[in-house]
UniProtKB/TrEMBL annotation, chains A, B:
Catalytic activity: tRNA(Pro) + L-proline + ATP = L-prolyl-tRNA(Pro) + AMP + diphosphate
A GO cellular-component term linked to this record: cytosol
PROSITE patterns: AA_TRNA_LIGASE_II (PS50862)
Source species of the chain: Microbacterium trichothecenolyticum
GO biological process: prolyl-tRNA aminoacylation
Protein family according to the UniProt entry: Belongs to the class-II aminoacyl-tRNA synthetase family. ProS type 1 subfamily.
Gene: proS_1
Keywords, ordered alphabetically: Aminoacyl-tRNA synthetase, ATP-binding, Cytoplasm, Ligase, Nucleotide-binding, Protein biosynthesis
The keyword Nucleus belongs to this UniProt entry's keyword annotation: no
Protein name per Swiss-Prot or TrEMBL: Proline--tRNA ligase
Pfam families to which the protein is assigned, alphabetical: HGTP_anticodon, tRNA-synt_2b, tRNA_edit
Length: 599, 599
């Protein structure tokens, strides 16, 4: 049935919504696709719902092709399964919790690993039942601290989440690749360019995790890639550590006065003014051919406060080369699931051995941090701080630093940690050359969970030998409403939206552009003919609206093919208007039907 | 693509779930359609999701035919709109409430009148924009005190809710009828017999309200109907009041001793033993030709405690003929939105004029209840207590009653109220004859809301004369998951489900019944041919499962058409099995395809 704009529930708006920051948000509201209900919570109007249904249909078809079966879980779920896996606590303020009239705890699920695991546990018992991949397209909830950017980061959003179940690691690999391949087809069909980057497997214990990022300068995620094909998000990047250096022949550590040098830059300036130049070729970082002290010679020790899941608070110190920052996202991943924040003044006051601005792993009387630590504070090092490297760093005395402090001789960490910022030019860990940094938007995530959830919830099956084995799982997510917003973000101009045909709310937008009855007669017949040819038609039959306003609405709404039925109508002529290129072409009505229905 | 049972996510269960009370719940769980997550909260497995999608599709098509446009609101909504209409309070414990991380109040919406009203207010401004009907198919939440009967009364459930907007009463009537007609088509297509009954318009102030009930002896709702076409639920039934009787010539009220007669039956027995027989033909209820005292001669006065929305508590008394009960559902509707409960011992203690078991509207010293009441308690009468009727009732003295107490002379109520039970044989209010009582299940509700929500939320449009007028609205609901359960409840036998073709999860269930390769070859080809003919096919290709188990599963799952590919396969013969009738017929493979695809 032709949708007639004279009755259709659509009002376009002239003004951008006051709270909209990004283009997709502005245009989707102005063009009548969505409407805000609360921060990060939107209603879907008829146009928006049509686009959403088309995105979902593409995903559904590719899930079916990949052998996955669709189920549907409720949003409202009881606390217990999430309690068992610790996620009830781990999510902190990030989820919506509530109680029912009997005071039982519930949550609005942010993701469904637990209940999918329990469902399979309920129904399956043998390796012969596997592999299995099941998915849902479902509304999820997260209580974001700063819901923003319209649909890009909402508090209610639609996701496709799939979960695979296998009795062997090889099975998991196959299930993972089937979903990964399906994701490639989905994004290709949606016209979304993507880069597959290694992602951190995090505290999940999974062995493989990749994100699909759409590369764009306005993306919120940073990733690195090399010309040789390496790609990873910054959290997953691993540092290429230099070879350790023999400890022989290095001088002893030297404490020196360094008044008013609490920052790396002041320390470097002071060193160049008061110390002999670093000896070219001695063991240590970045010294070859360098005749001045630089930030790369210094070891920056940053105190962090972890809050563990059980509520306990722990100070840790990370030592990184002074020419690099401690990257917030890498820190978060490195210490997950603990929450990380900077140490406070109280923390320093409680640990008098930590002299703020002059912290180091060593003092005249021995180890302060690391092995045989005097402080009891764990000390993690950047992988570049290998044995034999010599550093300028704090001497744990106010206004004093030490140089020629050698790793592996004068200090040793409690382990290495990937928290230093990644820079363009850093070598890719796979040897494929230096990396460059780029930005992107996450559009999908495939993830080998391994046995974490199956272990926690007791999902085991009998194997070929009749022995119980724990099932290994994968988790695969696409943010449906998010990628809809990304498509809108990428497909627009100053006039409005320009949908790819695969997700456009209508295939053709017919405009009766004038007041003569013949225009309406021809437009109505053309619309009916196009519908009969299997196309979805939006027909702007508003009797008293000017052609200019109708054209403006058509451009704003963004159906890719527009037909203008104007002055030529009496002669059987109409105009085909390509919304993307702007090209217009006069053709006969019959040709219009033929051209538009040839796909 | 043919769905193969060897891979499909389905496990049938032998045992009924322990918590299942009704057939639909038992069978939907056993046959692998749904799975319980919490009380009244279910996950949908692939079979169930397919049936649900088909029910939704029927509804969607008829909504489109009725000119309604689909939108989709979030389940999580802010408190404010519901606060304005008082529903935040009115729902009491019946809704899920929660707070976000900023301590703002939210609810999981039980229904969406407020936000639909605000949406139209946001976008529309003129009578020319109307009429408009918009709808959604969406998951709703109610914190039922006793979630039960599986999907029949869940805490999360899917509803189609539509709302109409008109600038005139005549417009509302037309929009209402369009939805009402659509409902008739929907239930016809779903094979659901229905009766349209008048329903109470309640506190909404709407002028018309009708329920679609499926008549069934196991229904939870009682309704009345006459042979002449009247039908109403008991809450909406209105009593035919007798004509008032002249007050002349009636004797004065007589107080008499009535020891140990706190109940109607003891009072009637006592009266027959100690009073003169009632005079035939005197004014009063049910006296013509009656020579014994009966319950119908007595006036039963029941004390109720109302709790108003503002939290205040008020005692009221209802007087009904002693041969009728006070009906809980009619009381609830009569005093809505106040909550009603029986008066407590404390209430009686606080009102010494109320002598329990001997309460009446009159005492020797004058009015106790009603006009010039000595108690201050409002007194509502059954419509049958018209002026001139004479009653036996309490005298407000322990162990004493009064007879010949005449309404309109000795006492007057504060109004009439429809709270007495309805009985078979009561006259229909439209004069269409006596009613009978029947039971049914609610499957839909159409409702003229009038201007309640538009008034509260300020939805006005400019009329033809440029004046602002308040919009008038209708509300139209179908419980999608509920009618799915009702269809299951009505379509089954002791072997399992038997779906109507319009909502069956698959069109055909093909069973390879044996171990010979030819059976699998023929079955696979037949399945592919049926899919090519446009049918959805479930093919039981499990290699090591016996024919008996496969047949049992097919019967339990309930696809209406089954094809058995067994011993005849080598000769190109298969068996068509009609799940509903049980008929089996041997046909050639070619005939099977032709027969099954002819619809």
């Amino acid at each position: 049935m032709v949708t007639r704009l004279s009755h259709f529930f659509l009002r376009t708006l002239r003004e951008d919504p006051a709270d909209a920051e990004v283009t997709s948000h502005k245009l989707l509201v102005r063009a009548g696709y969505i409407r805000r209900q609360a921060p990060g919570i939107f209603a879907w109007l008829p146009l928006g719902l049509r686009v959403k249904a088309k995105v979902e249909q593409v995903i559904r078809e590719e899930m079916t092709n990949a052998g996955a079966y669709e189920v549907h879980f409720p949003a409202l779920l009881p606390r217990e399964p999430y309690e068992i896996t610790n996620r009830w606590e781990e999510y902190g303020d990030g989820i919506f919790r509530l109680k029912d009239r009997k005071d039982a705890d519930y949550l609005l699920a942010p993701t469904h690993e637990e209940v999918f695991t329990l469902l399979v546990k309920d129904l399956y018992s043998s390796y012969k039942d596997l592999p299995l991949t099941i998915y849902q397209i479902q509304d999820k909830y997260r209580d974001e601290a700063r819901p923003r950017a319209g649909l890009l980061r909402g508090r209610e959003f639609t996701m496709k989440d799939a979960y695979s179940f296998d009795s062997s690691d090889a099975g998991l690999d196959a299930s993972y690749m089937a979903q990964r391949d399906a994701y490639e087809r989905i994004f290709q069909r949606l016209g979304l360019e993507y880069v597959i980057v290694q992602a951190d497997a995090g505290a999940m214990g999974g062995s493989r995790s990749e994100e699909f990022l759409h590369p764009t300068a306005v993306g919120e995620d940073t990733f690195v890639r090399s010309a040789g094909g390496y790609a990873a998000n910054v959290e997953a990047f691993t540092t290429v550590a230099p070879e350790p250096i023999a400890l022989d022949g290095l001088g002893a550590p030297v404490i020196f006065d360094s008044p008013n040098t609490p920052t790396i830059q002041t320390l470097v300036d002071h060193s160049n003014a008061h110390l002999e130049a670093p000896v070219s070729g001695i063991a240590g970082p970045a010294t070859d051919g360098v005749t001045e002290w630089t930030a790369a010679h210094t070891l920056k020790n940053v105190v962090l406060a972890l809050t563990h899941l059980d509520g306990t608070r722990e100070l840790v110190i990370v030592g990184v080369p002074g020419d690099r920052d401690v990257d917030d996202k890498r820190v978060e991943v490195a210490f997950a699931p603990a929450a990380v924040e900077p140490a406070t003044e109280q923390d320093f006051a409680a640990n008098p051995l930590l002299v703020k601005g002059y912290i180091g792993p060593w003092s005249e009387t021995g180890a302060v941090l690391g092995e045989e630590s005097a402080t009891g504070i764990r000390f993690f090092l950047d992988p570049r701080v290998v044995d034999g490297t010599a550093w300028v760093t704090g001497a744990n005395i106010d206004q004093k630093h030490v140089h020629t402090l050698v790793a592996g001789r004068d200090f040793t960490g409690d382990g290495f940690v990937e928290v230093a910022s990644v820079r363009a030019g850093d070598p890719a860990p796979d040897g494929s050359g230096p990396v460059e940094l780029a930005r992107g938007m996450e559009i999908g995530h495939v993830f080998q969970l391994g046995r974490k959830y199956a272990d926690a919830l007791g999902l085991k099956v009998l194997d070929e030998n009749g022995k119980l084995v724990t099932v290994t799982m994968g988790s695969y997510g696409i943010g449906v409403t998010r990628i809809l917003a990304i498509i809108a973000e990428l497909n627009n101009d100053d006039k409005g939206l320009i949908w790819p045909a695969s997700v456009a709310p209508f295939d053709v937008h017919v405009v009766a552009a004038g007041r003569e009855p013949v225009m309406f007669d021809v437009a109505a017949q053309l619309s009916a003919d196009l519908e009969a040819a299997g196309l979805d038609v939006l027909y702007d039959d508003r009797p008293k609206v000017s052609p200019g306003v109708k054209f403006g609405d058509a451009e704003l709404v963004g159906v890719p093919k527009i037909v203008i039925v104007g002055r030529g109508a009496a002669d059987g002529q109409v105009e085909l208007w390509d919304r993307r290129t702007g090209d217009r072409e006069v053709v006969s009505v019959a040709d219009a039907v033929a051209r538009l229905s040839a796909r």
